[in-house]
Amino acid sequence: MFTTARIHWLAMLSLSFFLNLSSFAHADSFDQSHQSFTDVLTNHVRWNASGTATSVDYAGLKAGRAALNRYTASLSKVTQAQFQQFSKLERRAFLINAYNAFTLQLILTKYPDLSSIKDLGSFFSSPWKKAFVPLLGQTRSLDDIEQVMLRGAKEYDDPRIHFAVNCASIGCPALRPEAFVAPRLDAQLLDQTQRFLRDRSRNRYNTESGALELSMIFKWYGGDFERGFLGAKSVAEFVANYASSLGLTAEQLTKLKAGEVNIGYTEYNWTLNKQ
After folding, report:
1. pLDDT, tens digit, for every residue of 67-108?
2. 105, 109, 113, 172: most buried, per Cβ within 10 A?
């Protein structure tokens, strides 16, 4: 015979089972293809002629903002429990897309009355520290997403995310005109890295001085490129893996690997990446 205590235990067990089942159902209902964001980006983002940078049609994006609103609303509906049920790559793609989508939302709050994302901050307040992003049960800032949830996570091991998150500036790596998705994330990050390093306005070998001039991203986040990704223990070793994108000759690559090349940094352009 079932005692009262046993009946209560079975009831709680059943409730827990159905709650977990419901949670899995909700997690599965999220569109991991991020197709609605791809649609937004395809309509409003264009590569330049060399395929190394993109510009955004902010006027068109603002006029049709409902589509972006629907996508960011779908991100905000995901709970922390559901997020933890995503795979590692799904979580990473989710956060990169969230950063880029909410950055667009931030720009639209003042567009066209700004020339740089920095115009949305002040001497005392950075635009990246504004808590305006409803994500995973909390109101977060863009810095929370990039610095804490992406870079600060225990599973962080891929510095190429710096070429995927976009700060709405000309100096920033391209806003990719498609969403990042788990099945193709590695290929997308590789492509973003190669395109960025092919841009001679931001990354180049100075034949006159014999120095490698790189984007300030490599200075600001230098430690991220020294953690062993692709065996790299320094910025020089990291970029050596992409010698063809940098246009290095065999001799230049040999010197770079031998530590005989000085590294300098190019000026970062904070101008809005608008069409």
Report:
1. 999 999 999 999 999 999 999 999 999 999 999 999 999 999
2. 172
| 265 part of a folded domain | no
User: If we measure between CA atoms, which residue out of 164, 165, 176, 160 comes closest to residue 56?
Assistant: 176
Burial of 47 (C-beta count, 10 Å sphere; 0-12/13-18/19+): middle
How many CA within 13 A on the CB side of residue 170? 14
Whether the predicted model's global pTM rises above the 0.70 cut: yes
The amino acid present at 76, given as its one-letter code, is: S
State the DSSP code for 63: H
Give the DSSP per-residue string, 206-250.
ETTTTEEEE-THHHHTGGGGGS-GGG-SSHHHHHHTTHHHHT--H
Range of the domain at 127: 31-199
Of 199, 221, 218, 204, the residue nearest 273 (C-alpha): 199
Indicate whether 170 belongs to any domain. Answer: yes
210 domain-assigned: no
Q: What is the mean pLDDT of residues 145-153?
A: 97
SS in 3 state form for 83-149? HHHCCHHHHHHHHHHHHHHHHHHHHHCCCCCCCEHHHHCCCCCCHHHCCCEEECCEEECHHHHHHHH
Give the separation between CA 75 and CA 147, rounded to whole angstroms. Answer: 19
pLDDT digits 0-9 by tens, 207-259: 999 999 999 999 999 999 999 999 999 999 999 999 999 999 999 999 999 99
Domain count, the chain: 1
Other Cβ atoms within 10 Å of 141 Cβ, number: 19
Residue 161 phi, psi dihedral angles, 5° rounding: -65, -20
3-class SS shares of the chain: helix, strand, coil, % to 5: 55, 10, 35
